[in-house]
Design a protein that fits this description.
The protein has a domain at 46-171: Immunoglobulin-like (Sandwich), CATH 2.60.40. The protein contains no helices and eleven strands. The protein has strands at 11-14, 17-20, 26-33, 40-44, 52-58, 68-73, 108-109, 121-126, 135-147, 150-153, 164-171. The strands form three sheets. Strands 4, 6, 7, 9, 10 and 11 form a six-stranded mixed beta sheet that branches. It has a three-stranded antiparallel beta sheet with strand order 3-5-8, with no helix packed on it. The radius of gyration is 34 Å and the shape is elongated.
């Protein structure tokens, strides 16, 4: 500080403690799948889910734009950039691109051209594509800010982590029942079964009376 120069610092109060304001900060609010909270999603292998919607709130002082993305996250390695995902869905039901990028995994972003200002609740909608592998997976999703080709994770103003976790059950496709084998033409029917009647029956022939015996 020099002379009469002053630095103004803005604080937000949360839980009774001063929290320094951040330009970019976010908190997960809720999610939705098939009109219910997305507690668990069950998919058969290779199928596409219904639409998944995740809501985050802008707790920073700056507006979100097309550089604010919802990305696949690993809370065990919070310093890594977004990761690819086996659940990436390339195209939506309308044939238009769904995920912005599969590697890194970017399922949704603010791309409607309208900035989301501070305090706004923002929804991110996308679909999932089940892989060919059967099993249970937890998919973590968190907001990130793309800056000069790199991604910076958005935390809460106090620095706490905030992300969504979707539990996904992938089950095998049901197996269609096998058709009963058909015996070849002319073959004897299997034991315990009756041979089917032919579709057309030969015409019956009238009985020929025996020749008359001459009387002596």
């Amino acid at each position: 500080m020099r002379g009469n120069d002053w630095v103004t610092v803005t604080y937000h109060w949360q839980s009774g403690l001063p929290t320094r304001a951040r330009p970019y900060a976010a908190a997960w609010i809720r999610d939705r799948y098939q009109d219910l909270p997305a507690r668990a999603i069950t998919l058969t292998t290779g199928t596409r889910s219904d639409q998944v919607t995740v809501w985050f709130k802008n707790l920073g002082t700056a507006s979100w734009d097309q550089h604010t993305v919802l990305a696949v996250y690993d809370p065990r390695r919070p310093t890594l950039p977004p990761l690819g995902s086996a659940f990436c869905n390339v195209f939506g039901p309308d044939g238009q691109p769904d995920w912005a990028s599969c590697t890194p995994g970017i399922p949704a972003f603010v791309g409607n051209g309208r900035p989301a200002g501070p305090g706004r609740l923002v929804s991110f909608a996308f679909y999932l594509r089940a892989p060919a592998t059967v099993g249970d997976t937890t998919l973590y999703l968190k907001l990130a800010r793309q800056v000069n080709g790199r991604y910076q994770w958005l935390n809460q103003p106090d620095g706490q982590d905030s992300f969504d976790a979707l539990t996904i059950h992938v089950i095998p496709r049901p197996v269609a029942p096998a058709a009963a084998p058909t015996a070849p033409s002319g073959a004897a029917p299997p034991p315990g079964t009756t041979a089917p009647l032919p579709s057309t029956m030969p015409p019956l022939r009238a009985a020929t009376p025996p020749p008359a015996t001459p009387t002596p």
